[in-house]
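From: lab user (bench 3)
To: helpdesk
Subject: output format question, protein + aspartic acid

Hello, I'm new to running complex predictions and I'm not sure whether the block I got back is the full result or only part of it. Here's what I submitted:
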Amino acid sequence: MHGIIATWRMAKEGIEQSDKMLKEGKTAAQAIEVAIKAVEDFPYYKSVGYGGLPNEEQVVELDAGYMDGDILSVGAICAIQDFANPISIAKKLSEEKVNNVLVAEGAAKYAREYHFEEKEMLTDRARAFYRKKKKELAAQDELRPYDGHDTVGMVCVDNNGSVTAGTSTSGLFMKRSGRIGDSPLVGSGFYADSEVGGATATGLGEDLMKGCISYEIVRLMKEGLTPQEACEKAVNDLDAKLIAKRGKAGDLSVVAMNNKGEFGCATNIEGFSFSVATENLEPIVYLVTRKEDGHCEFEEASQEWLDNYMKTRMAPVEE
Ligand code: ASP
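Helpdesk reply: Thanks, we reran it on our side. This is the complete output you should expect:
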């Protein structure tokens, strides 16, 4: 049984490619990289890869993480500038015996050494968002993910039962230089264990990391919870704890898949979507609704929603 699940609608085209690869017998390692690269390369997704929004100094700093659940190998890069495909660098790092997590210039040096594609990642469109946000910022009292939040995180299972997980993000818009969130942190942004499954998160990194939420979901699945139960429990427990201890909880959204291709999702916000494909399910986008009791339900996105999504992503930036 194979499958791939990803945070947000933006992963749909990528998982379509990966779904084909998995059907042809390609590995979870190969398929997840192709799917995440597709998101990184698309200029209209303003939170991942090319076209990602910059930090407060108008510099695009990218984070990515990768885990091979067969042997628990991990690779991650943090705050790297001007490389086309952070996920590929993170994946390559996971093959090293040590030095698996590299930041900023050290990460760039490694990427140059292995001839990963260099590319100016700040687009004119991202510059326009920056100028617009600069004007709005005076009225904003705290760092918030813009329009919800949008890291791409994926979990992939292949026919051999190998599980991989990966993330790629430009992080919070207007973050401080050098800031990283949960996305390149193993256990927080992503986790995979082929004996169980994998999970990945998106939202306010500063809060997601407080619960090591991706590891927690995999741990709960190992205890026997279904992916849906594990996602809901992890999100609801962390949400409640953050509110109890700190007065509020940031955005927390997660998806998970076990090594049988069964999947789940949970969120504490409105407007979370995810993309998924399995052996028995053609690539599809689901919209998630959180009920008052904390239970999350999901239904297929309508054609109207999908059309509107692309229209708003590609609309001119009104400054
Ligand atoms: N989790 C990401 C971060 O904190 C943001 C996001 O999901 O958009 O960097």
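A quick orientation on your result: Residues 227-246 form the longest helix (20 residues). Let us know if anything else is unclear.
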